[in-house]
Amino acid sequence: MKSKFEMKDVELAYRKLKSYVYYDNFSLLLRQQIAEFESSPNFEECLSKLVEFLNDPVNKRNYFEALLNEINYYVAPKKFSREPFNYGDNIISNNFTESSYLLEKVNYFFKGPVELHIISILWILKEGYVLHKDYHKDNYAYYLELNSESGNVVDGLRLFKPYFDQYQRWRDKGVDLAKNIVAEDTDVVVLSLDIKEYYYNINYHPDLQEEIHTRIVNDTGDKGTLFTQMIFDINDAYQKVCPKNSKGIMPIGILSSGILANWYLKDFDKKIKEELSPAYYGRYVDDILIVLSNTKISKTFNNVQFNSSLEAFLHKFFVERKIFDTKKTEKKIVHQSRNRKCIEIQKEITYQFISDKNIEIQKDKIILYSFESKESQAVLDMFKKKIEQHSSAFWFLPNENDINDDFDESVYELTYTDTVNKLRSVTDIKQSKYGASIFLAKRIKISLLSENKKDDKTTEQILTFFKGIVNLEFSNLWEKVLTYFVIVDDKNAFWKFFKETIIAIDCIKSSDKPKVKSSDLKKTKKYLGEYLMNCCAMATALNPNFVNLNWWEDRCSRFRFNWFNPNFYKEVYVLKKEYITSNLLRNSFVVVPLLNYLKLTNETDVNLVKYDYLRTLNPAFNKEGFQYDDKKLKYAPRFIYLHEFNSIDFLKELIFQAKQDHLEMFENLEQKIYHKSFDTFFKVNYEYRNTFYESKNGNEVANYSENLKKYYFKINEGYRSCDQKLGYNTLEIPQSKKIEDDLKIAVANTKVKATNIAQSLFETPNTDKERRKDFIDLLNGAEKVKADILILPEVSTPYRWLPVLADQARRKQRAIIAGLEHIRINNVCYNLLATILPMEHNGIKDVVINFRLKNHYSPGEKKLIKDRGKIAPKLSRSLYNLFIWRGIYFSNYNCYELADINHRALFKSKVDVLFASEYNQDVNYFSNIVETVSRDVHCYFVQVNSSDFGDSRITKPSKTEAKDILRLKGGENSIVLLGKIDIKKLREFQKTRISGQDTKIFKNTPPDFDHSNPENR
Fold first, then answer.
1. 827 near 805, Cβ under 8 Å?
2. What residue spans define the domains of the chain?
3. Spatial separation of the C-alpha atoms in residues 131 and 720, rounded to whole Å
4. Which residues contact 740 (CB under 8 A, 6 or more apart)?
5. Is CATH 3.40.50.300 the classification given to domain 713-734+743-1016?
6. Backbone phi and psi for residue 213, each to the nearest 5 degrees, phi listed first
7. What is the DSSP string of 504-567?
8. Where are the alpha helices (DSSP H) in 868-980?
9. For 622-644, what is each residue's pLDDT tens digit?
10. ∠ CA 784-789-792 to the nearest 5 degrees?
11. For the whole prediction, is pTM greater than 0.85?
């Protein structure tokens, strides 16, 4: 008899849980639990036991009870305040360090075995998704990814739509609508509400639980509600241990709560929409945005009944319409400084949902925006502009010169009462968490482009900013700070920040208003200590040898605080290993894509932020270590792109062949590497993660794989000469939208320095600040002009920057042709031309990367290499590529290859455009070649050379005075220039035989030109 539940069900739920936590920046301690769980030697056994329980829940109830008994809670800080100043009134200070920091509010988070979290995911997949249908129209948080046909949660890793996208949608939709209404000469009011302590006031009483059981059964039929009852059992067990004094508590920190909490408010949502008929109503967890059209705030109100226009407005629209009731209370406010103390009695109104008094609106968080159509709309415009600036913070790569200059402006916000030119107008200094986060992210991104380049100014800015109460309030940025110091290899700064944070935690004390229990205070300090440990482990997992066990022991032994874990130094070291084993470290910071998925990371401490690790391995390396770790691939927490497999498979093969002194990959194996990469890509992202493939046999799965591959690329032999010594392969990218208008080509005008070439050949590639800036300027320049293709000169780009090129090409869907600097392995110096071709399939953007070894090294290049005892590889056969991308047929040459008349004639009538990446001083000779090839092959020709040599150009087969579309030389700064070529116009000309060709447009096609080729294109 077939079991009701199988291992694949539990594995699917576990993967979704792990993936959610991987992307969530607020679940670091759950991340720790999952890392420990997966790294455990009995990981598979734990999953099997869960399957056994699910198939016999009555007889194995003890298993579930044991899990429930492990439920506990974390106490995390919610709000800090500072001790009253001793300065007196009207004093503003930039000193945020005190002898103590007051803990005013705490939050309680669910702590329970990973198995219970898996059960919560299974509930969502099997039963809970039904509830989503009742509230999804107005809700933006915990928005399930549902299959449009079946209505079930989609296969794969996705569970909820990304929270950052959903938050932006929730906010932007309301703002955009308000803006449109005002533009139509109609007044509008935007109301922002916040529900007070939402999760602590959700009372799922027995009648409501029964309603949920019935709702699910009605939708799913006879499948029952096994998981629904388990979820309520989990919630009940948590409510018994959670110290929060409330009739109903929804656990914060388990994903089932997101669904239940949303469903709980469905009647609240419905009531507001029915009574107010708003132009827009949207809710994100407990934050509510309402847009009311043709509404304005009255400037006059009954000041006997109401304290403000806001109260009068809320009474008219919410109280009179039976949405809210009001509860009036008196609140004692104590104003105190070290010099004096006064007490103020305030009358306060609380708004409660009329159908459920547990749902209260926080009065101090109600904000009302009134926009009258006849007045200035500057506020809405400025707010919208600010949102767009934040949304595009990483669309361009960070400008290195501006990052440090922008630090103060980004992280400090000054409040003015008058003109900004008056110092006395400054009334407050606040810190921006968003600004600090963006600064750190940009700094990390830049630092990954080079090897351990410390920046004293950046270090000083970070250590000065993260002090005292600011450090405590911005605890979710600790990991970024520590990661930055690991990447730049700054142990001293790492220790200073760590010590400052420990001291700040110890300075926390309980506030008297309201009083935080001493037990909660101690648990908060322990929580922050454990959180800091996780931040340290996550950061050092990127470079396990950054600090050793003795380093940790020596420093941790200096702390004698009663809350500080005496085993911190041991546990952080173990946890670091567990993050590596489970691959829950920050994959995006690994400089060699997928290096962390190789077996060698299990056997030895690998510096994942050091590019040269693989290339400089001892020739007697262990080949087994270069294989993928199947478990890491099976439980990978993210979608792994094809280009990542593409890149590392190529690099591994290059290393193997360099050690064995042969070039078979470039001569025979090119197609095999693409297929090998795709097979692994399919296995990881589809076969492992989709239950659909479980029911298929091997042949059926292979067919699905082959069909999907055809969407990504098609590669085959295009042409071989009679002696097989010369030819080309055809590489087509089918899923690339055809270019309907002119092809926009960005030509990079940048200087390739001879010193950089020598460094890449004989030392370590130069990746200094000046060069990074030039590189980033070129990539940003291509984006500013919205180019379709960017072409860079020969040997202009260090190989370690290839992942940045690939990511830019993928995100912007821009093809990039780049001459890579020589990569030296086992004294063999490879000159590679990379062609990066983007595509998109089912909303997933990816790229295919082609690496081609230079067929003809120039005499000067060979001399430079051989004079230093290195090897310039010589191919026994020369293969080029005919690329078909976005309907454009093109190929490319690497400088001196153009000197071979047979090679440059390969693509006669077969291409629309040829590209050449060059580092070439003989400008006149190559200028003649360009003009000759353009006419003989009859195509557009794009040549890019080092700017000091010049003659970078886009030319066409036309008469002399009209042939150059773009031509340039010189300049100190690196820029791109955009040229446009009309492919359609050229093809139409070529379809016409010579007798009918108009030579005012293009030169005649050459003899024996195959007119059928442009006709077929």
1. no
2. 7-71+112-369, 399-589, 590-712, 713-734+743-1016
3. 61
4. none
5. no
6. -55, -50
7. HHHTEEE-BTTBPPHHHHHHHHHHHHHHHHHHHHHHHTTSTTSS-HHHHHHHHTT---TTS-TT
8. 901-904, 923-933
9. 678 889 999 999 999 999 999 99
10. 90
11. yes
